[in-house]
Predict the structure.
Amino acid sequence: MTPHPDIPVIDFSDFTNRSSLIANQVLEACTRIGFFYIKNHQIPKDMIQNAFSLSKRFFDLPLKTKQTTPIQYNRGYIGLFVQRGFNIGPIIHGEYNHPLPKVFDESKDQMEDFFRACHATIVQVLEAFAIALEIPEEEGGREWFSKCHNYEDVTSGETIRYMKYPRGGESTYKEPVRAGAHSDFGTVTLLFQKDISGLEIQANRTEWISAPIIEDAILVNVGDLLQQWSNGLLLSTKHRVVFKPEHEDNDRYSIACFAQPKRSTPLNPIPSHLVPKKLPVLPKELPDHLREKVITAGDYLQFCLDTAYAQSKKLQETTE
Ligand SMILES: O=C(O)CCC(=O)C(=O)O
Ligand SMILES: [Fe+2]
């Protein structure tokens, strides 16, 4: 399927030798729409298929078993009955610092390989940003972003989210959409969608366009933290999941990998002549104590989580 012409498909093959060309394409996409597809990435096809099989095995468990699984922070913007999700943090040499359901624990090596492969792709995307932004060598050059995204740093907050949208249409769930309009919190997100489409993105900030599934391509988008950090140069674009006729009879599965810098990373101005030098526009809800200093990636993530939680609580109160 061909995507909407606004969402470019970027060929990441031979990244080392083609990095300048790739970097320019990534910058163009992210300053214009905030989304692009990667084709010819480094994540083996069977690794992605295995990740989806594992996800299905987990979601197929009896409800009772799933309910005894400590589901990590269920992000607030998503209607509970319309989508189910399970978040995990990095698995490092077989170790993890949060509870994992048995099916995942039994496959933790496979999950670690997948998570590390996602991280390697994220590093390429971050290097592409640094190259295109012409970050000087003495500042860290192409590693300026990637050096603060360390897979083995358990505090980073990098997360993989396995999602299932159980079959059924709008009339089944009495909800207008399957996942409400939102932007992601971190630097970049990789999204894998399996077989059934439904994702839409808010191109030009007003009109919704669909982001179809392109075989073997990964969809990538910029998150709020990177938009903030780049002083609005790189765009964090709203997206949502809508009902499609094929959802009536088919479960929809997706997997997202959300990249986050190390929590202690100060969000200092990016050393690039291309990044606007104006004072950063801080979100109006940002508490005063965070306005008075250079905020860290951890402060920013916590602020995003608190805001999303407060919004979802408010929504629940008004709809109950
Ligand atoms: O399921 C999808 O296709 C999108 C999910 C998403 O945008 C998210 O979890 O942030
Ligand atoms: Fe999202």
Notes: The chain has one domain: 9-319. Confidence is low (pLDDT under 50) at residues 72-81. The pocket of 2-oxoglutaric acid (ligand 1) is lined by residues 161, 163, 179, 184, 191, 193, 199, 239, 241, 254, 256 (CB under 6 Å). Residues 113 and 274 are 36 Å apart (CA to CA).
